[in-house]
Design a protein that fits this description.
There is one protein chain. This protein is α+β, with helices and mostly antiparallel strands. It has one domain. Helix content is about 45%, strand content about 15%. It has 3 helices and 2 strands. The protein has helices spanning about 1-5, 25-35, 45-55, and strands spanning about 15, 40-45. Strands 1-2 form a two-stranded parallel sheet. Helix 2 links the parallel strand 1 and strand 2 (about 40-45). The longest helix has 13 residues, at about 25-35. The protein is globular. The two termini are about 20 Å apart. The relative contact order is 0.27.
Length: about 55
């Protein structure tokens, strides 16, 4: 499952967070997902790492 998530770009239902040093950003994303169609937050992955998975 993680591999399939890493092959995707961030979207309205998928968000990558590098770490939990800013918990408010994660909380805001979780609230936004809860108020819409839901979503997945992947912690420990930065956007540059996702780009590497695409190549």
């Amino acid at each position: 499952m993680i591999e399939s998530l890493l092959l995707q770009e961030e979207s309205k239902i998928l968000e990558f967070k590098e770490n939990v040093s800013s918990p408010m950003k994660i909380i805001k994303t979780a609230i936004a997902f809860a108020n819409t169609a839901g979503g997945t937050i992947v912690i420990g992955i930065e956007n540059k790492m996702v780009t590497r998975w695409h190549h």
